[in-house]
User: What shape does this take?
Amino acid sequence: MDTLFDLPEPETTERAVIAHYRLSDDEYGSRAEREAVFDAERAMAAAVEAAGVR
Assistant: This one.
């Protein structure tokens, strides 16, 4: 129980990964930078899945 508000604890907790990338311009970065961001996204998703995080 959350004693301050007398609420039950949630069954699962939520988590997030926030990444900040400095790109080469104020728009969307270069094609290579965008590909690197998408590669990082896929790598993080695979690591989360491999760890069994739900």
User: Anything to note?
Assistant: The chain has one domain: 17-54. Residues 31-51 form the longest helix (21 residues). The two ends are 23 Å apart (CA to CA). DSSP finds one helix and no strands in the chain.
